[in-house]
Amino acid sequence: MPETPSRFTAATLLLVSTLTIMAGAAISPSLPALEAFFSEVPRAGLLVRLVLTLPALMIALTAPLAGLLVDRFGRVRLLMASVLLYALAGVAGGLQDDIFMLLLTRAALGLGVAGLMTAATTLITDLYAGDARARMLGLQASMMGGGGVIFLLIGGALSELGWRYVFATYAAGFLFLPLCALSLTEPPPREDGGGDGAAMPWGPLLGLYAGTAFAQVMFYTVPVQIPFHLKELFGAGGMMIGLTIAVPTVSFAAASVPYGRVAQRFSRWTLLSLGFLTSGVGLTSLLVAGSYPVIWVGLAIMGAGFSIMVPTVSNWVSDIAPDAARGRALGGMTTAMFLGQFIAPLISQPLVEASSIPTMYATLGVTGAALGLGMLLIGALR
User: Fold this and answer.
1) How many angstroms separate the Cα of 261 from the Cα of each of 133, 213, 265, 286, 308?
2) What are phi and psi of 186, to 5 degrees?
């Protein structure tokens, strides 16, 4: 393995990463149309929201298995198989007339995301170390956000034609398969004796996983709740909904680019606390947001905070996990991320029903800011 991976390899890993974090939310602009199409199905409102969040549940359930497979059978094979499954299952969703068959394709999509995200992140942490790894993880987070923006804007535009067209966005996976075949080779195995469960630093890992899950709850309430909020406030169509949901992803992508330089100046505790504080402030501001510009500013602030959290946790987990168990450790992080996405509506919807969508955002925002202050204090005492 060369000391420095080629630019072709780096570009492929970054491009594949665009398929991951917003894979479920790509169809968010079409949710009102989906609900209307399946309106005669009992519990249609709940089932349509599950269409959005079921991939996240499947990712959360299967990412540990993906981590085990990536450690035992190789990163590249699992990555390519997962990208193929992602594309096939994603496109198939738009062909369904039965909501339960649609849910089945969404579950299969989740399996694909679990494998490709775990394999891609593990490859990055195998091939890079130190400051170079921090830079690559920051770029990966940026590309995840950038992919989310592209998917959401395309999805918003396609939703104006009909909800089925939105699922064509997942065909991007077919385009990336040849790049994976041409540019990626399996890293040599590492024999550091770190593969047993006893060597895993479970205490710190579980703390990082918990923080990751809550951060995702904060972030994912946007695609879950904003479409209905904008529909009620402004009568918004799919394009405007997609544009608004894309705002925090644009901010996330842009603010992730300089992460490598920022990470050299601050401790991980400081970075994580700053991420939670910023995201919390952004969400809380939605309590008084009654126009598109004010909503967009709050969402942009939230996305900037999230851009600090994602690469910080990835780098932290990669550094404290034994080399031979890195795939499993990052698989656990993937589980935490998407478990947070799945439970976002389960946490946010009761708050909405008890008060309102703005109050729900303020409640989660204040909680996130309080967590950030607590982390800042812990970091100062260490």
Assistant:
1) 12, 26, 7, 30, 12
2) -70, 130
Furthest C-alpha separation in the chain? 59
Backbone angles phi, psi at 266, to 5 degrees: -125, 155
CA 13, CA 28: separation in Å to the nearest integer? 26
Please report whether residue 209 resides in a domain: yes
Task: Answer yes or no: is 151 within a domain.
Answer: yes
Domains in the chain, number = 1
Question: Which tens digit of pLDDT belongs to each residue from 246-300?
Answer: 899 889 888 888 888 888 899 999 999 999 999 999 999 998 888 999 999 999 9
Q: Write down the pTM of the prediction.
A: 0.79
Which residues does 256 contact at the CB level (< 8 Å), separation at least 6? 138, 139, 141, 142, 145, 307, 310, 311
Quick one: which of 48, 274, 31 has its CA closest to 156?
Answer: 31
pLDDT tens, residue by residue, 318-362: 889 887 788 889 889 888 988 998 888 889 988 988 999 999 999
What CATH number is associated with residue 56? 1.20.1250.20
Residue from 103, 60, 51, 110 nearest 82 by CA: 110
In a domain, 291, yes or no: yes
Burial of 2 (0-12, 13-18, 19+ CB in 10 A): exposed
In a domain? residue 193: no
Structural domain harbouring 318 = 7-185+201-381
Helix (H, G, I), strand (E, B) or coil at 2: coil
pLDDT number for residue 195: 44
Q: Please give the Cα distance from 249 to 23 (Å, whole number).
A: 12
